[in-house]
């Protein structure tokens, strides 16, 4: 029997805040005499909120109560309550993730929005969700293509590269429509820190409290637009390119078949708006500059199925995945949120018993000392075709290497990419005292630096919903 989950996506961006509700359908697609194979078989957006300007008390402080009122209003408009929501994500993006109270605001809204609505911040996940919400991900899969999605918002441009339906890379750049804010007469009243640096680099006359000439603003926007072309060309040694990198550049080079545009500025590229000060920022001028820059190239340019709503649709439809069906868990430990991942490399997994135990203990100690939570999950690739003796040895090494967890009566959480979670969980259960909780799930891929949320079981207890995310504030 299919089961339908209600999912919410809430995107708190530099410029705008918006919300969607979706229905996600899961079903066991295996035959009666085989191991259950529970899959997501359908996703549908059933409600889209109005688009609200993100409320701020000051340029560096979010209006938390104002945000809560927006969310409350849109829950009412969508005929939903937090109790109706099974899963989903609140994502705080762009310049908003750098505000002084961003972490506190996200925590407050996460508790209000539903029991398993995850809170996430950081440019990498934002870029991935936008690429999925825009349709770039599906396009790459359907056309066996390499596609780069540019989600151009108010504070940042989040870039994700998809190849044949697989995520290849992400990067983020301080390029956006609200890095400069202007009053109706053209007087500048806000400059982001990166905007100030770029203005100095370009040696143009733009400063707070003075009217900015359209020619100076066009020079500024042109520099950002040319950087987007450099990004599409997969990298540059140009000094402005380097200046505008948010936290990291691409990890590899990519020859792309198409460039997708999403985000609020994508609408300014597609639509030729006359009044460049309509939104009180440089978004329209930046859109014009990007359009001109792409016209000079041979890149195939496409607009996302979703533009300004790409991230929120991605957050509502594409954050939640489900585990494999060969899993082991202690029900009273779920749901569980914000668990950082420590991941062994393939070489470390292949070490002898003592070396593997030491590698686990060392990695665990390093993460616990640098984290604000004592609880950590172990991520493993695992090998296909592990025999029972190999699983037993692995369980023993995990129990010894993760002793710091069990000594504090914290749940021992293991996330495996291969599909032997139930066998490993039962081995761990036989080794550990009965009062030590164990959660062992499989068919989920994680890495160092990720966080995981695990929900209550669905589909008759055969699988659990999971969300892999980042938590990066003030980047």
From TrEMBL:
InterPro entries named in the record: ATPase_NBD (IPR043129), EutA (IPR009377), FtsA/MreB (IPR050696)
Gene3D superfamilies per UniProt: 3.30.420.40
Pfam family, one: EutA
PANTHER family according to UniProt: CELL DIVISION PROTEIN FTSA-RELATED, ETHANOLAMINE AMMONIA-LYASE REACTIVASE EUTA
Coiled-coil boundaries: none
Protein name, UniProt field: Ethanolamine utilization protein EutA
SUPFAM superfamilies per record: Actin-like ATPase domain
């Amino acid at each position: 029997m299919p089961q339908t989950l209600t999912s919410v996506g809430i995107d708190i961006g530099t410029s705008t805040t918006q919300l969607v509700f979706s229905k996600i359908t899961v079903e066991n697609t295996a035959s009666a005499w085989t191991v259950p194979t529970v899959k997501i078989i359908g996703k549908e957006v059933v409600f889209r909120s109005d688009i609200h300007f993100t409320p701020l008390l000051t340029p560096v402080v979010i209006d938390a109560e104002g945000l809560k009122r927006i969310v409350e209003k849109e829950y009412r408009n969508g005929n939903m309550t937090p109790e109706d929501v099974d899963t989903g994500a609140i994502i705080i993006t762009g310049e908003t993730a750098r505000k002084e109270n961003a972490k506190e605001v996200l925590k407050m809204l996460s508790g209000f929005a539903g029991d398993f609505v995850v809170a996430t911040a950081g440019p990498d996940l934002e870029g991935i969700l936008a690429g999925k919400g825009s349709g770039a991900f599906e396009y790459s899969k359907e056309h066996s293509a390499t596609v780069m999605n540019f989600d151009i918002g108010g504070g940042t441009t989040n870039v994700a590269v998809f190849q044949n339906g697989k995520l290849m890379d992400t990067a983020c750049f301080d390029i956006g429509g609200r890095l400069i804010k202007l009053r109706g007469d053209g007087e500048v009243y806000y400059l982001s820190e990166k905007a100030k640096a770029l203005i100095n680099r370009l040696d143009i006359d733009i400063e707070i409290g003075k009217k900015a000439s359209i020619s100076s603003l066009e020079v500024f926007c042109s520099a950002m637009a040319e950087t987007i072309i450099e990004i599409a060309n997969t990298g540059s040694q140009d000094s402005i390119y380097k200046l505008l990198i948010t936290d990291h550049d691409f990890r590899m080079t990519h020859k792309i078949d198409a460039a997708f545009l999403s985000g609020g500025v994508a609408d300014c590229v597609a639509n030729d708006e006359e009044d460049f000060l309509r939104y009180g920022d440089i978004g329209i001028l930046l859109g014009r500059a990007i359009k001109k820059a792409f016209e000079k190239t041979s890149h195939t340019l496409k607009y996302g199925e979703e533009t300004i709503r790409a991230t929120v649709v991605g957050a509502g439809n594409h954050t939640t995945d489900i585990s494999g069906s060969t899993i082991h868990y202690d029900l009273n430990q779920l749901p569980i949120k914000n668990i950082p991942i420590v991941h062994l490399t393939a070489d470390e997994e292949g070490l002898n018993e003592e070396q593997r135990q030491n590698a686990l203990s060392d990695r665990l100690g390093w993460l616990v000392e640098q984290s604000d939570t004592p609880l950590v999950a172990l991520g493993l690739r695992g090998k296909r075709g592990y025999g029972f003796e190999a699983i037993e040895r692995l369980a023993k090494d995990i129990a010894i290497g993760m002793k710091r967890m069990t000594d504090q009566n914290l749940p021992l959480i293991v996330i495996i990419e291969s599909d032997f979670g139930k066998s490993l969980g039962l081995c761990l259960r036989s080794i550990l005292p009965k009062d030590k909780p164990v959660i062992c799930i499989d068919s989920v891929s994680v890495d160092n630096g990720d966080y995981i949320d695990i929900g209550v079981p669905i589909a008759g207890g055969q699988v659990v919903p999971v969300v892999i995310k980042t938590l990066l504030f003030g980047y």
